[in-house]
Structures are given as C-alpha cells and as structure tokens.
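To the team - dicarbonimidic diamide complex, inputs and output below.
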Amino acid sequence: MIAVPASPFPYALPPGRTALVVIDMQRDFVEPGGFGESLGNDVARLQAIVPAVARLIALFRSQGWPVIHTREGHDPALSDCPRSKRERGSPSLRIGDPGPMGRVLVRGEPGHAIVPELAPLSDEIVIDKPGKGSFYATTLAGELARLGITHLVIAGVTTEVCVQTTMREANDRGFECLLVEDATESYFPEFKAATLAMIRAQGGIVGWTAPLAALETAVGGAAAA
Ligand code: C5J
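Output:
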C-alpha cells in the first residue's frame, strides 16, 4: 500500500488495483466555442487545469497503472439523449446543434474529442457516457471488474457535475475514491470548494481529496524504496 497524505485522513493506494479516471476533458467543455461556453460559462478556469491533469496521467502511465478516459456525448440521432436534457434552459447552442466545433456533444464531432494535450493512448479505455455519471449506461463497471480495480483516482471536469456524480456512483459500488484537488475544476469556484468539502465530510462519506503533489511524492517515494 502507498500512503497518500489526503483529507480527511491518509488514502491507502494499492498498486495494481488502482485506476485513474479522467472525466470529460473534452473540447466542448474546456475550449472556447463549445457547449460549456454556450451555457454562459468562462472556460478559462477549466483550461487552467490541463497541465495538472497531464502530470497526473503521466504519473499513472509511468507506473503502468490503468488510465481510463470518459467523454459525455450522444449518438448522432440523439437516441440516447433525454428530451429534458436537450430542451432545458435557453443556451445559445443545444445538444446536437451545429456549432464552431461541430454538432454539440455528439460523438465523432470535433468538440466531443478530448483536448489534444490529454489524448488517450491507443491502449487506454475510453468510456462514452450519455449522462453525468460514468457508470450510468456504460461499460465502466465491467471494465473495472475485468481489471481487478478496487480504488479510483479521479480527475476532470466539472467538479460538482460529472466528477461528483461519478464519485458518488463509484462510492456506492464499493470503490475507494480519491479526488485530485488541483486536477479537477468547475466553472464556479464556490461549487468546487463545496464539492471537495462535502466529499471528505463525515469521515470521508464519499471519499478522499488530495493535492496532486502529495500523490506524486507518495508514489515517487514508494517507487524509489
Ligand atoms: C456538464 C460535465 N457539466 N462533464 N458535464 O454538463 O460535468
């Protein structure tokens, strides 16, 4: 076990049974002209974590530990997109509409792709999900079972939406989850802060949080020992 300094207490990371899940680092959420910006959000906050997420991915790859990427989106016919999701609110672009990066949140379109700096390697698992949670209507649970994974390190966007939903789904399924504080972000800083606080409240009711440097130091120290 690798002991990672974390809140609310150290996180015991078992090498060989831990995977990294990088959530929805897609152009539609992170880059100007995408779905996130069409909802009125400033995407600069999300762009700022790309280097930290890249470091985290590099850490897992250096250890030979699994890296799993998720993408939120829908098939071109929108058959897996509930009407409620498409029609809610008054965004300048709705799911499926043509935008500067192709049809918004549609699989295969440029905006649906993961940002180039974090592109998955050909042997890494990519989970396409129609909802906020990464377990709902996906193959993620089966992939984790096949790999013998019991612990998840989680990063990506947005902290209080797809990241938190995924972490709660995972927690309910028995996974021990660590959210990397500076490798996740929200369009709303107060929502990020509240999410981190509620995850680790009540003795880690949903899981743990830790800064990237703490994880890097712990893993590096274990590798050198
Ligand atoms: C959102 C996500 N915010 N990846 N998706 O709709 O958090």
